[in-house]
Amino acid sequence: MTQALVTPPGPARTTSRPSGLFGLTPASRIGLGLALVWFSVLVLLPLAAVVGAAAAGGWGAFWGTLTDAQTFAALRLTVMEAAGVTVINAIIGTIVAWVLVRDQFFGKRILDVVIDIPFALPTIVAGLVLLSLYGPESPVGINIVNTRQGIFLALLFVTLPFVVRTVQPVLLELDADVEEAAASLGASRMTTFRRIILPSLVPAIAAGSSLGFARAISEFGSLVLISGNTPYQTEVASLKILKFIEGDNQAGAAAVAVLLLLVAVFTIVLLDLISRRVARRG
Amino acid sequence: MKRVIKAAALAMTGALALTACSSAGGSDDDGQTIGIYGFAVPEAANDAIAAEFEKTDEGKDVKFSGSYGASGEQSRKVADTKGKDVDYVHFSLEGDVTRLVDAGLVAEDWNTGPNKGIVSSSVAVIAVEKGNPLGIKGWEDLTRDDVKVITADPASSGAARWNILALYTHALSLGDDDAKADEYLKDVFSNVTTWAASGREATESFKKGVGNVLITYENEAILAKQKGEELDYIVPDTTFLIENPGAVLEDADPVASDWLEFVLSDKGQTEFVEKGFRPVGGLDISGIEVDGANDPAAPFPAPSKKLYTIEELGGWKAVTAEWFGKDGVKLRFDNLYAEATKQ
Amino acid sequence: MADTRQIRARKGPVTYVLRFFVITYLSVLVVWPLWEVTSRTFAPTERGAEGGFSAFLERLQDPSVSYAFGLTFTVAFWAVLINTVFGVGISLLITRYRFPGRRILSVLIDLPMSVSPVVVGLALVLAYSTGQGWFGGALESVGIFVIGTTPGLIMATAFVSLPLVIREIAPVLEEIGIDAEMAASSLGASGWQTFRRITLPSIKWAVIYGVVLSMARSLGEFGAVKIVSPGAEFRGETATILIQNRYTNYEEPTAYAAAFVLVLASVLALVVVSLIRKEES
What we know:
The complex is a heterotrimer. Helices cover 75% and strands 0% of the residues of chain A.
């Protein structure tokens, strides 16, 4: 019933009470050492290798790749699509969360499970799933292959749960008294929503949106079968990277990858800031 | 309830552990597996040849494992893993094998045999929607406004480079000088709706209805028809002879050499022919019906004006150095492409 | 309280419009496409051919398909195992101990979730491939090959699902606080005893939940795996790669069958998760 797959940013990271924490014991020192070694081997060193490969050709080569007309068009398309999807999700995600929390009707619990499916589904399967209804053999006569609308639809699909799952728990915990008070003071439902409810949802919507944005920017699997890779038209950043890799241009691939990495880092830092603000307020 | 969940969790873990063990055992590499790395389109043919090879004395108990994809990417993967678990490569372009020679993985003399290292061949053709509603007759029609072309992308695909040369030599056959040929190429490029990653992905895009004309290998068009796809293909007046190299890696299992020999034998080439490839060597194809060809009894018509070959253009080394840049370097093709696709 | 409920439960036309909108949106975006895949999975491939469940099973029994699923499970199993051990350890460290860089570490832990799978694959290749990786040569000299082998697949999978376990356990550890553990250790319990008797029981459900989530994610990983895998039948072809290969190689029925199995697996994971949630509360 409550949120499932997308853990909202919240008390996941400890920010308070450092005084109550233990100092490192010998055993925990070893544990920390091992954990750091593994984390470096698995995540940090490979990512450093990407940055290294992008830097190998010097600033000029790096900048040249990113400003190449075709690469730039792919990056711009990626950002525009992701931004559009994020806006739609912020609105529709909030509406969906609202209906799931405040409305009661038959089949609501099924809808609640449906929300998580896009997140649990393998991305390549997500692409296949969308193609089976909106592809070349579409029973409804819509073919989204190699169109910007197709990319948009795929991104909407894979980012569906983010805003819903971050807004839902906040909505559940909202204090009814305030709404009641507003209503008894003659506020219309719209006013109540706008003045009372929405402000308390904003951090959650922001958090869900940035998670969704990061996901949309980096999405790959679901677009493989849908995007036709037409330069300037339907080529997105992750597929551009794949093309660079396939075309044996590692430096180009690394340059675009570094840009996506920056977006990822920016997003998690933003989330951290949001969660700290919420934590301080609460 | 608790117990149910516990039991389910236990059962799941148990099942996972079991599959983990059993398949971990199965993935071990025993000496009798031939690992094939190939470009995107010959999978069906290689599988058919493999089935025949397994019936021979040398091929008894041999297993196959094939990886297929864009030629350049496949070649890089082999070089990257220093040929681990790879015995035989079948690429679209000579240069993709040369890379492995440079990496010390394939013998220097790989292309000195009677077949010059070539194991399969085909020609570039134009595939169109069934019934050819646009009335496409040849390369000159690809500049028309109502034509939406799909081709593979030369950046990653070998097939695509053959396609580009077919277009270029068409211009040459009309007596065009280089500037005029470039104009023609740009006209076609501006009609391209999809630059697919590999020859197979180009076919895939065509099936999805993204464009209405596909430049492809003859064998790929024939295979698509064999698989029941709704398309026709045209062998234009002039076209280009596509020759795909194959080679055995130096530290490959000895059985891989038997395999290469079998691929080049009449039996092996017959399988290629049945999947739509033109034969390499002196195979007599009379009596072989090629399902899916325009005329199954005479499946491989010579183009009515001329069949160009890579030798006439000075060989792949010269052509690559003139046309196709890598690592962001822009050569003749790359510049034309950039100009034609500019918005 | 009753009043509140009335206020909240008051149903105007807006309620019905929103309800209708949400149901339609989710149906068009998720339910209908899923239904379409299901029906194609069980549809006869050509006129006169047999469809239905037996044809579906037959497609799955192809040796290369069973290899792909076997490999997928093997990879997912090890990736989840590694992530669980690592996840429990690092969650304990960042919620229980004080050390320099703790905050940076706790932020960095989340990074893998937002990195594009293609970038993950590229990163592993640039670091560990024999031909051109930073450490490829050194690893080769001791006989270790990462890229193109099962360990490489496990690393790629472990990378993308790394934060899932931690994200479940850390908040719970935070919430239960350290009083009980303090008490135990002041009564003379060893660190291990404290962990086993006090800490572990309280994070049990979070661990299981994290494991199920990681499992679902690991089974379905595609992008990162595609870059590091040779992608050949019987050699590195996981279920998701198989789906792409078959789909582009005129074997759509097999692609649909394999896809359906993965759909089932992820729905199953969701059901298990919701059962655990119920159990917990």
